[in-house]
Amino acid sequence: MNPGIDLQGSFIQILTDFGLSAGAAKVLWLPLPMLLMLISATVGVLVTTWLERKISAAAQQRIGPEFAGPLGTLIPVADGLKLLVKEDIIPAKADPWLFTLGPTLVVVPVFLSYLIVPFGQNLLVTDLSIGIFLWIALSSIAPIGLLMSGYASNNKYALLGGLRAAAQSISYELPLALSVLAVVMMSNSLSTVDIVNQQAGYGILGWNVWRQPLGFLIFWIAALAECERLPFDLPEAEEELVAGYQTEYAGMKFALFYLGSYVNLVLSALLFAVLYLGGWSFPIPVEAIAAWLNISETTPWLQVVTGTLGIVMTVFKAYLLVFLAILLRWTVPRVRIDQLLDLGWKFLLPVSLVNLLLTAALKLAFPVAFGG
Amino acid sequence: MNIADGVQVVSFAVLALMMLGAALGVVLLNNIVYSAFLLGLVFISISGLYILLNAGFVAAAQVLIYVGAVNVLILFGIMLVNKRQPFAPVRSAWLSKVATAVVCLGIFALLGTMVLATPWQLSTEAIAGDGALVKIGLHFFSDFLLPFELASVLLLMALIGAIVLARREYLPDELEEETVLTLPERPRELTSSGSRSNP
Amino acid sequence: MDFATLAAQLNAGTILPEGIVITTLLVVLVGDLIVGRSSNRWTPYVAIAGLLGAIVALYYQWDLSDPISFLGSFNSDALSIVFRGIIALSAAVTVLMSIRYVEQSGTSLAEFIVILMTATVGGMFLAGADELVTIYVALETLSISSYLLTGYMKRDPRSNEAALKYLLIGAASSAIFLYGVSLLYGLSGGETRLSVITTNIAANNVDQSIGVVIALVFVIAGIAFKIAAVPFHQWTPDVYEGSPTPVVAFLSVGSKAAGFVLAVRLLVSAFPLVSEQWHFVLTALALLSMILGNVVALAQTSMKRLLAYSSIGQAGFVMIGLIIGTEAGYASMIFYLLVYLFMNLGGFACVILFSLRTGTDEISEYSGLYQKDPLLTLALSICLLSLGGIPPLAGFFGKLYLFWAGWQAGAYWLVLVGLMTSVVSIYYYIRVVKMMVVKEADEMSESVKNYPASDWNLEGMRPLQVSLIVTLVATSLAGILSNPLFALANGSVEKTPLLQSSLNTAQTALVDQSVATSSTPAPL
User: Fold this and answer.
1) Domain range spanning residue B75?
2) Mean pLDDT, residues A181-189
3) How is chain C split into domains, by residue range?
4) pTM for this model (two decimals)
């Protein structure tokens, strides 16, 4: 496999050339990708909110944000500034500690999950051997934060919203994990990089979406439910629950929820791209194009192009999915809570189990096509 | 001591303090909701210790199972039935508290001495590290096959039992033998047919 | 290791009986799911057929040449076969008794049977488990199903209370047990197979460590909870009183037998290095159980509580056989458990029948029952007298064998206390019998006055009658025609390599132990 660009290696190399010890160089390197990822995740959210407004407007034949910057692109910044300077209210009879801790607990695991999102062979914060399992484990912490903020608000709507959110999150965690497991079974590894590499080689034909037609549907439905996107936004269903667990929140704490939900959406889209749409790979393998043009794979400029293309492809695929999620929002009506739980437990869970068994059977029967 | 070792020592100290503090909070706090949340913190600290021990998979599984499932379930239970009723303070409750503390400290001292006095045999096998997952899988399907499969029976039965306990009760409408047999387990007001036999 | 070699090494045929039970359980579950409530007519009989099938399969495993299976996880030796048979048989009889009871309480029968059979599977695996993880999973399967069964009558607050108490105390004891077991794992340098643990501990030079003793104490706490030995018995009366009576019948026989076989296997094979200590602890437990169980039973007014305390006392008697650790000791323990199976289940069948007809468990309500229902009176009297040890019933011979073996081995104090507490127990058993038989017509209790005519044709009453008659016949005749049972008990001890190899060491330990009990307690 083409190693591609190794930024970490080069950075440490440069610093050690300057006379630093390898350990110190590593310590200097460590915060850089994390910081970069934090910033890009936040910028991703800004873009997503703008898209949300624009696409929603288009779906309803409106224009949407127009005056703040070209095409209204500065509107997310305005939003953010507004939330930042708003008064931070803690209700009189709320539990101040839990009330503050709740939103943090919702947001932090989501950002932590960006550790394992790859944009290229070496373009990720860390290639853990447990990879995708870390995401599943971390996303199971969020319900605690939701319950905490629901309870601490001392408001019945908030408590109900928190309980609903946690129930929904737990219920859809299972089909989500099972559909991921089917992919993992095919690639023999939990590492996200290995999962993408396993899909490489045949271009668009090798992507998991063809081998997991059931799995990717389940994954997408469950991911939408995990992000509390319409049609599964019951915890904040405003007709029933005012705004669910967010009812009492204002200012920066509300902004954390807001940020968390969009970061989670982008994260789910990115991981969908990694799991089913070949991650950073181009529909036609770059290696094949290079071979046709008689260019060596190790040519530096080609590596730069490949790396850039990888980032562009990952982000493009993810935003395609975000677009899909926004379209779904204006297409499907909200389900009722019992329908939601019925769908999760009585339909998605058995179907995803069948999908898992089917994948295992196919893997045994056709080891060539389903990862021997 | 190089940087990596230093980081390890510091993280261990932080995690251990966090775990002990949270565990004491679970036991000592009066508000049961706080106790439940702190229990989550205990679990997370334990998972941090697993990471320090190079067991990444176990750490993630710990978070997924204990924080994501067990703790959330406990919180659900507490929040759904959380009737805030003032309990009458038990007189001389401090006596039982002191007794408990003494017993707990005694057991702690005993176990602590035991841990320090025992010449533990360390396993000579190489640390699995990233290959742990594969090793666990191999064990599940070789020497731990029987408990692994038995656990599936256990889980099936736990599922059935949970549903039996949680579902709305089915009461058959007609039990024509009602006049002959009775059971204290079937309260009369719940039986639908009005026949009554023995007072 | 590829699949074929692995499959060959597993020697999976040894768990055929458990396989039969699990298959039956699934048939009952799925059948009930598909057919619906009308499946109540056949599911219990399918379950009984499965359990009896498992016993037949056990019979064919008697002469197994290679009992070790699943790479050391499971040991299907003769000891385990006898105990698995006891557990399966008690489950079969319990199913017979529970049909009418569960129907009458308005809960669903199929789930009850499924959970009961899962408990049976757990107990059967526990009987043969030869490795710590298997032991723990099997123990939890048994325990969790027992909690569920205890709380099965969920509209009855007493059942809820019983389930909650059982669950909390059980969870605590299982945690302690797990701690002890994990200490064993650590002391042996990461070994889970019982047979290897001892050699590893000895090889690692930790056998003098206090850790082994702490592991022993913790493990005994877990086991003593299962067999309800004093002072780990507090749950017993409340749980017995509150839970559905068929469940109590199973808990008092099947679950207890599983606890005993766990005790034998774990103590004998994993703790020979501290055998002096565990003999001392068990002696204390046995003495306390015999005395407290039988004395407190005197004061009970509820029949189920009476049987609860009596079962604590009986556990004390059985422990004598385990403590003396001779060939006759183990054999007498197995023989007594076999006999106890019939007489105790018979007693509970009578209690179920009486509470079905009158709706009460109070002892005073039994007065004058002889006038209305001679069969029930006869059966209950025989079972109670047998539990008390009146000749020529089965219980007498069981106790005789136990005490004889104890006397032979020199455990005089244990035997003397056993004899004295037996006399006490006869008093409270006879009190019930007297109340049923002697009272005149005008002294009848209200319930007996309103006693309905015996109608055995109601659905589910026939099986109850069958279980009553079977246990009655077995209790009456097992004493006189006890040769097959003797042969079974002796044979199982002879054919079990674990017990045979331990007999020598046990002999030496026995001397220490008898010295310890007769003079000063051994230093722990």
Assistant:
1) 1-83
2) 88
3) 10-515
4) 0.88
